[in-house]
Design brief:
The protein has 104 residues and is α+β, with helices and mostly antiparallel strands. It contains 3 helices and 5 strands, in the order E-E-E-H-H-E-E-H. A 5-stranded antiparallel β-sheet has the order 1-2-3-4-5. A hairpin with a 5-residue loop joins strand 1 and strand 2.
Length: 104
């Protein structure tokens, strides 16, 4: 189960934040933010990107105001960062997380 939460915006849309295992079998976790019309659509967006086992149960760690601002200002509306509690790390587009590693 992933820790996360959501916040409903004044316009009716939501921002969902989840702490997920990094794709590729890595034990590290990443914080993923998704902006969508509702919670189900946010989870569907992640599942369509290949993150299949994504569930939101409860609202233990909703997105902070800074996180909401970050995802609202990104054109795709889906961002992530490696360090969950480090506010100095910048947010990355979801393509950077799902990109296959290059062979050396």
């Amino acid at each position: 189960m992933s820790q996360g939460g959501f916040i409903k915006l004044p316009g009716g849309s939501v921002v969902v934040a989840l702490a997920l295992p990094r794709p590729g079998g890595d034990d590290r976790r990443v914080r993923v933010l998704v902006h969508a019309a509702n919670r189900q659509r946010a989870l569907t967006r992640l599942r369509n990107l290949g993150l299949r086992a994504v569930y939101l149960r409860g609202n233990m760690r909703p997105p902070t105001p800074d996180e909401v601002t970050a995802v609202l200002h990104h054109p795709d509306g889906v961002v992530w960062r490696q360090t969950l509690d480090d506010d100095t790390e910048s947010w990355h587009p979801i393509r950077a997380l799902l990109r296959p590693a290059r062979a050396a």
